[in-house]
Amino acid sequence: LLGKETANFEFPLFTKSGERKDILLNATTRRGPNGEVIGVIGVGQDITEIREITGEHERIADDLSRLIETANAPIFGVDLKG
Q1: pLDDT, tens digit, for every residue of 20-65?
Q2: Helix (H) or strand (E) holding 12
Q3: Measured distance CA(32)–CA(27) in Å, rounded
Q4: CA-to-CA distance for 77 and 46, rounded, in angstroms?
Q5: DSSP assignment string, 34-68
Q6: What is the strand order of the sheet 8-14 is part of?
Q7: Structural contact between residues 29 and 37, judged by C-beta atoms closer than 8 angstroms
Q8: What is the pLDDT of residue 43?
């Protein structure tokens, strides 16, 4: 951390079985009374499932955008009220 305050950053972590987990780490320096860095406080969170869901949503949105952009026929949107 080199004495700089840090917010969130992501990194991959691999389990003993080789499974990849995406981790979101929030870390900040811990300072002594004179302002010197004496440690780091951090909290990690497994965001693997969130990343998978987000990736799937992005893929669906891209597919739908391509479908609309390349459609050779009109596309209509209708709700329950007509």
Answers
A1: 999 999 988 888 999 898 998 899 999 999 999 999 999 999 998 9
A2: strand 8-14
A3: 16
A4: 38
A5: TS-EEEEEEEEEE-HHHHHHHHHHHHHHHHHHHHH
A6: 8-14, 20-31, 37-46
A7: yes
A8: 93
- Distance, CA of 56 to CA of 59 (rounded, Å): 5
Tokens describing residue 76: 């209509």
* Residue 34 token pair: 């004179």
Q: Quote the pLDDT of residue 15.
A: 95
Give the bridge partners for 32, in sequence order.
Answer: none
Q: Which residues pair with 29 in a beta bridge?
A: 40
Q: What pLDDT score does 82 carry?
A: 64
